[in-house]
Amino acid sequence: CIRDRTKVVINGLVEEAAERARRRGWIEQVRNFPKAFETHWFDPEGMKVVYQDMLDESGVETFCYLVAGEPILEAGVIRGVVVETKEGTRTIRARIVIDATGDGDVAAKAGLPFEYGRAGDGLVQGMTLMFRLSGVVPAGVRTHPQDAARVFAEMKRLRDEGEFPPFNEGAARSYLRSPRKPDVSYNMCPVAGNPLREAELTRLTALARKQVHQYVEFWRQQMPGFEQAKVEQTGFSMGIRESRRVRGLKTLDGQMVVQAVKHADAIGHGVWMIDIHDPKGSGHTTYTDQKPETMVSVGQSYHIPLGMCLNPTVPNLAVVGRCASSTHEGHSSVRVQTHCMVMGQGVGTCAALALSAGISMAQVNIGKLQATLRRDGVYLEDVPKAN
């Protein structure tokens, strides 16, 4: 769940998943609640079980290990998607297709126009490889604040001299000062490039893995409490923040975020700040700066509009997640997990109503959609009347 720093404004399926995880001991409240945007830390391994349970109980048939191939288009309508399976090439036919690939792969192959990168140089946000350590002694770390400052300064010096890899300074400083527990997930290893090119993404993944071990080897030698630290696991894949942004009926921009703009076709709220990870790979992020011009005011939230997930070209194809229609700046807020889940619940509900009525998603009565979302626990307030 996420707060506007006064109240929870993202719930619905997000809240249901959190409650299920709480009952299993897979989630815990953050230390600086309620002042933070985040409300909880969760165990990613436990959440995998939670999400699968929710799918199974709903009767959804799921298939893993498939690669989305070419969409099947007939007269401007998508009829399904060709997929590659371990048993050969198959076709999944559908009356409505929702592209939740992150990169907008299905939408792009269907010919929908998209934006890529920031104005000026066309670069997308930097990527991060997450990793987990074992063997860290938190008490040993916390009792050596002077060593933490010394090690952090040395990391910066070596990095600036080209003898050490880049890193997210805010995250690294926090980990050296006060790790919460021995098995923290570390979010500080940046790389930058084009995530739509497999060869480049492969090279960057290998580079990031090497950087992780450089951090840990240095900490083992220099930082009390890390003497027995060991890389337990790196992420299953690179953490990609931005690639295609499929052009929609509406485009969320940075001003809509920081000015907490409301939309008549709202499907939920967003509160995250303009959080841009340096597209050149330094590890710097505007999250660390938290300047007023990049922040949503305390107690305020913006609306996530349905229109950013729909398009004027293929009426029965929608996108959800970080590939939805936004500018580079607007995307940096709405790309985070809970906001993507807001889009998923909103567009999924819209698709169900459209199927039931035999109409397109854009023709669904927005008032009926919003009433349905509210009944399902979605926080949806301050909705202006449609013009």
3D structure, described in words:
The structure is a single chain. Strands 5-6-7 form a 3-stranded antiparallel β-sheet. The chain has a 3-stranded antiparallel β-sheet with strand order 12-11-14, covered by helices on one side. The radius of gyration is 22 Å and the shape is globular. The longest helix has 25 residues, at 198-222. The mean pLDDT is 94. The chain is built from 12 helices and 18 strands. α5 runs antiparallel to α6. The relative contact order is 0.15. 34% of the residues lie in helices and 18% in strands. It has helices at residues 13-23, 44-58, 105-109, 138-142, 145-160, 169-177, 198-222, 254-258, 286-289, 328-334, 337-357, 366-375; strands at residues 2-3, 8-10, 27-29, 40-42, 67-74, 77-85, 88-93, 97-99, 114-116, 127-128, 131-134, 185-186, 190-191, 230-234, 244-246, 266-270, 302-305, 317-319.
Secondary structure elements and their pairing?
Layout: E1 2-3, E2 8-10, H1 13-23, E3 27-29, E4 40-42, H2 44-58, E5 67-74, E6 77-85, E7 88-93, E8 97-99, H3 105-109, E9 114-116, E10 127-128, E11 131-134, H4 138-142, H5 145-160, H6 169-177, E12 185-186, E13 190-191, H7 198-222, E14 230-234, E15 244-246, H8 254-258, E16 266-270, H9 286-289, E17 302-305, E18 317-319, H10 328-334, H11 337-357, H12 366-375
Parallel strand pairs: 8-18
Antiparallel strand pairs: 1-2, 3-4, 5-6, 6-7, 9-15, 10-13, 11-12, 11-14, 16-17
